[in-house]
Amino acid sequence: MLNLTVFKITQGRYDLYITIMKALELLRFAKIDHWVSDNLQGYQRPLNEGRVSKAMNYLLYEEGNFPTSVLINVRGKVYYSPSNMIGDFGELGVLEVPDSALPLWVIDGQHRLAAIERATSKNPRFENFGVPVSIFNFHDRFDEMRQFYIVNNRQKSVSTDLAQRHLHQTIVERGEWGVAPFESEKKILAAEALDIVDLLRTTPDSPWFDNVQLPDSKRGIIKQTSLADAIGYVLKELTPTERHDVSQKPETLATVLIDYWNALKDIFPDAFANPQEYTIQKTTGCYVFHIVFPNILSICKELGDSSEDKMKEILTVMLNNFAEAEGIPMDCSFWHCRFGNPLAMGTNQKTIRLLTYKLLSALNLGPEGSEAI
């Protein structure tokens, strides 16, 4: 059992216990809830080795103090005994943390703790380094994650892909109305798209299978954030009822998107066989074809056929019309990273919008200016 002398204050609905712990004691019980692909409910980003090394060197060779408190949470039941009031806003007391309530989950401060641990291995005096600690007692892991999200996303930098995961969990827990006053529509749509992203990247017959870069990895041809943001444009075109249905059954939309991208794969086989060499599955192609998708699907629905073959047929007409209108070939070479068309190589929003506009214009033109479909 941990017995800590604490200063207890109440902020909003929550009690906060402020104390000092020896580094060795804190490191013994501290644990990090990292987000990794097999722990999707985790919320902590991976350690940044550069930050840890700088902080360790600061401890060993510079001022050597960490005045800001490490923020932790105890998920289990704790026992607090007051001993003395201080003013009208807080009191001194003893906080008992039984073994059953451990570990101490680190919400903010993992890099400082890692630096202290490494400094201790070089100089044992850091075992007694006094660490200011602020302790919450959230029983719900979600509340713990929310504190991390608020501290890191609103007060200092955190990777956007992990912040996107945090926002997604918040939407699942509280609904869109719970985040709408604080987040942009674009961020909300991208976060809602993560369920679809996860289906696209884990379905074996999807062109995106194992090709999406996650928060805990640098492997993949496109970042999770970019793919989710692009799919957000698809969600934006849905009615509120349709969006609700997709949130309840994301596989309905994911399945159609997989067929859509497989149709594109049939049209541009070399580009999909060597995705690193082409931009069709990178930022440009990903955004352009997801923005175009609702129009393709709308035509399919009018024809009563949303199959992969029908989408391929409509896409082929659109791409042929584009090639004729622009006087350029629309084949795999168009998307090549180094030798492709400038419209396919640019990643800025202006270029993406221009290519999208040209493709959508081509969608409505037949070989002689008539309706294509």
Whole-number average pLDDT? 91
Total of domains: 2
Can you count the helices? 15
| Rg result | 26 Å
From the helix content, strand content and strand pairing, which structural class follows? alpha/beta
Low-confidence stretches: 366-373
| Quaternary structure state of the chains depicted | single chain
Order of neighbouring strands in the sheet with most strands: 3-7-4-8-2-1-6-5
Condensed summary:
The chain is α/β, with parallel strands linked by helices and 373 residues long. It is 49% helix and 15% strand.
Structure description:
The structure is a single chain. This protein has 15 helices and 10 strands. The chain has 373 residues and is an alpha/beta fold. The chain folds into 2 domains: 2-155, no CATH class; 189-363, no CATH class. It has an 8-stranded mixed beta sheet. Strands 9-10 form a two-stranded parallel sheet. The protein is elongated, with a radius of gyration of 26 Å.
